[in-house]
Q: What sequence folds into this?
């Protein structure tokens, strides 16, 4: 709290100064997590510029299906058109701006505004606007399109007119890992929307380390707590788990080689606009799924996979998503900013399209571990938000095992620099 | 969402630029509906300058009656004084600023502050302030008066020191339409306060067109859906209704002529400070009232009216009110801004002072159509507010039948220009 | 509400102008109570600079006890260390800023962050941070200390690096009044936290006069309503009470002299940074306590006091506290700002450490009068907040009996001037 005289005069100045002060290896200064103007700038520099994970193909299985997703102040409408292609539009009528679709809005041949019945096709064209004068040109009032890409069944949109380069190349490297799981034809078994009381970056940072994993007893049944540690840094108490990991890992590699599944780690988290990390990794106990004994939660496996024992394919993308893709099911997480101190976490569980609830899988068992883990994380994020909101907070040092948190912050600061230099 | 560097430096600059960019015939840009500073400027330029409809005489029938109404950040106290004259004051004690009256506060001879018992007369004079030193001059601490005018039983206040010219002239043209209904001696049968989740201008704009009237099935039993259409623009599907309208209208005109009731349309919605529209107009079916079959909702007619079949006298005023005055009852609507995205709609139903509830009218029947219509409008306003709040919203074109929406916006923009040029 | 053009360009300008306009003897202008930037400046100029009453020793009786208190945006952690000394720290982990302790957090040997298990001693030293690299210097990451002083059992903290001068001198004059009541060894009998819907200064101003005491029927059973009146100004209706006061006061003075208890009034409310008022004063009826008949609410007296009939020791400090210390119990009040229009009032009731609930005192009886009084005050503060929030509010004149309100405002304005001149 300083005398108002000392405040720089514009938000851009304040952000520029805070970016310039950023010390690599340390957490970000408080205003990045709490200030309304920093939040607005995050929307401009990150969420309105980058490719943002928002959904999975399986949420819109049929032509005419539509849903909407909020990205900060933007509302984006997703539809599957008559040619089964996914499309995205700004979710706002071209007449007087009414919102077109709220949440999931079922399925129908056209998109009809609820205010004055302006009617759009699934391709966004304005088909009908009642009582217009001669000379009214419908072609001028189609829905504003938003870039959309589906990568192995995962849906990304980009609000920028000119999306950042490099997405196609990243997608082409990620897709081979995903295709054996055939997520684009999967079925949504469950969804959850959890509002966390913290800045979106705290939600992401929390996801990028297992330094806090003692708080996740359910997850740690099968998730190796050594995740993120270099061999040399593994604490003594985690050595037994590490021994189990090494055995499971060796066995898995043999399986991957035998089945021809890509599995090697690619980690490019902070040196490119479309930054990501992908890896097939072992799970503990039965090694199949996030269950108390590690056995599969769904009897029907994804795609045509011949064995349940594939560990998990972990995919992390900047700025807002992660995915766990297993043999029996997959889970998609996307982080959507609501306000400087509030964030929505959307979680979607996918199974084989012919897997039957109650027969092949119990939905409670399927969701239990990650519902618990999400709630635990939300508590930690809220604790962090309250702490960094005070003037006494000072950025502190990341431990080596938090290197992916550092990578996230470094990627993020690079995006702010880009935006400040536009 | 733009880089903060591009933001003009003061709110006045931003408002001035947005006003300059306004395209006639199109809806307003997003910040007019969502921005806190634009909202504050609306209060300064419109609600603190213009004559604002806030109540009806019948809400304060007896000397000593008082009520309060909030106009944005202002609280105005209305009282009927000992000479039965209505007066308005700023609702704030001259001692340490405590609010004097909250909501309806019954009736009493004086106005006593609940904090330290400073006591004011109904004329605003400070009568008593306990424990003051010699030399304390009570005459310096009377309540601050607010301009008040009653027009045919409808109460308007003006917060400006110097009210805008033209109100008296407008009142003198409106009053002859109202006087036969004798609203100043009417009785309040019901009141409702509905908080709508949208900017006050969206509430007004929604009121100024029937392009959306398909959403109002109860209202459309008797309200002709052709309202606002020019003869040439009436859609085919509304032609049968229009034929009924023409017959009802011809019959009504004969009645008005026979009874000597003024009925011609005056429409001066955007070329003057006190802008209004007034017209006697037909209703469908029995043509008497807003009921399922169009028959009167109250058996005792207002004033000394000799017939229930008078259609409705529709009065619209800028910036914040409309009225439906029928033979059997009248309804007053006033729109009061709470925040950029929240608005209070006050609705008051009036009947003859001797009409007995349960005998002459059923209060549920009396209110049903406009309670339903208000709720439907609130849903549409919320839909519009959510849409225009996103950065992707662009002003769109009004249809010819929305000409009164355009007139409202044009009047409003003229008021902002006046304020910016002060 | 003025045109935005007329707004000075920075918050400091606006505050400086408002301070310059302040008229002694009149209430403060509206923005001091309602504006977010003025509120932030209050935090900087007052709550982050001055000694702030936050707790009593008795809330942390044992080594290892800890609690936290929020001072505006600051969270302060209070602990009693192994040497039984009270200490205060900023309640934020030095790693990634998580809040360390929420509310009362029981007792334990160390302070362990709930996020990544960084562990601090009760002296604030970082004892353990898991998985750090060689070269990590724990000595650099101890908890940030906050100045703490206990005065006769009342706990004050100062967030400034350099606390204001004069506190020790004030403490040395206050402590002799308090010591006979031995509050540092007392027991907490009850606590309440009441959120008032008003600015912190309205809560303080309300406490500093009895001009409104007609609103407190329970309190006025024993509290003389003449409090704050000069002899000459006492209204006629209060003369009988004043006669009783004079008799009780004469008797009490004899008791104080006999027992050697300091009792004379010290009133230095606006001419120093650590400003205060202290006085032993009479109570009505039995003269012992705040009960319907004035008899003690707790049979076991504080310290070794030989008689219950000691009236009340009233201690007021700027900016945020007052205390009533009686023979049988004591009550501490501290006012903590939450937002421009919301304030927390913490009230703590203390009794002798060996007094037994249900035997020596009934907790409901003990709290009844001040719970009722606090609620009544909260209603008045809310009334004032609503009134001063409107643009029509103008500062009004204080009556002579409100001289302590004027002293508070004068002290406050002096602090703002100091801060503006830094």
A:
């Amino acid at each position: 709290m300083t005398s108002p005289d000392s405040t720089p005069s514009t938000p851009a100045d304040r952000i520029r100064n805070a970016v310039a002060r950023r010390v690599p290896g340390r957490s970000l200064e408080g205003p990045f997590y709490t200030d309304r103007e920093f939040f607005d700038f995050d929307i401009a520099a990150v969420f309105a510029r980058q490719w943002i994970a928002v959904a999975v193909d399986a949420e819109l299985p049929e032509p005419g299906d539509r849903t909407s997703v909020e990205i900060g102040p933007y509302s984006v409408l997703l539809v599957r058109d008559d040619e089964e292609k996914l499309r995205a539009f700004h979710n706002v009528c071209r007449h007087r701006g009414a919102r077109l679709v709220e949440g999931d809005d079922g399925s129908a041949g056209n998109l009809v505004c609820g205010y004055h019945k302006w009617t759009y096709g699934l391709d966004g064209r304005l088909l009908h606007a009642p009582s217009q004068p001669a000379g009214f040109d419908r072609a001028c009032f189609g829905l504003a399109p938003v870039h959309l890409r589906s990568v192995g069944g995962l849906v990304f949109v980009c609000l920028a007119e000119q999306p950042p380069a490099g997405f196609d190349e990243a997608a082409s490297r990620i897709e081979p890992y995903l295709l054996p799981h055939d997520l684009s034809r999967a079925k949504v078994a469950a969804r959850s929307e959890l509002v966390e009381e913290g800045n979106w970056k705290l939600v992401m940072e929390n996801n990028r380390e297992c330094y806090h994993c003692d708080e996740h007893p359910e997850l740690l049944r099968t998730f190796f707590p050594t995740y993120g540690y270099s061999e040399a840094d593994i604490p003594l108490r985690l050595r037994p788990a590490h021994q189990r990991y090494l055995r499971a890992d060796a066995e898995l590699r043999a399986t991957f080689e035998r089945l021809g599944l890509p599995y090697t780690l690619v980690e490019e988290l902070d040196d490119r606009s479309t930054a990501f990390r992908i890896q097939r990794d072992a799970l503990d106990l039965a090694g199949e799924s996030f269950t108390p004994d590690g056995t599969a939660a769904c009897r029907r496996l994804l795609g045509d996979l011949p064995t349940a024992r594939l560990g998990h394919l972990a995919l992390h993308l900047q700025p807002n998503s992660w995915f766990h893709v297993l043999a029996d099911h997959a889970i998609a997480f996307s982080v959507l900013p609501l306000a400087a101190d509030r964030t929505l976490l959307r979680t979607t569980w996918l199974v084989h399209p012919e897997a039957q609830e109650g027969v092949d899988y119990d939905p409670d068992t399927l969701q239990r571990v990650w519902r618990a883990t999400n709630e635990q994380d939300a508590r930690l994020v809220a604790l962090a938000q309250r702490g960094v909101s005070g003037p006494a907070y000072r950025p502190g040092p990341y431990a080596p095992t938090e290197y992916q948190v550092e990578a996230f912050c470094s990627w993020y600061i690079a995006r702010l620099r880009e935006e400040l230099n536009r």
About this structure: Residues 363-388 of chain A form the longest helix (26 residues). The helical segments of chain A are 11-21, 31-34, 36-47, 167-178, 200-207, 239-259, 363-388, 403-420. The longest strand of chain A covers residues 187-196. The two ends of chain A are 31 Å apart (CA to CA).
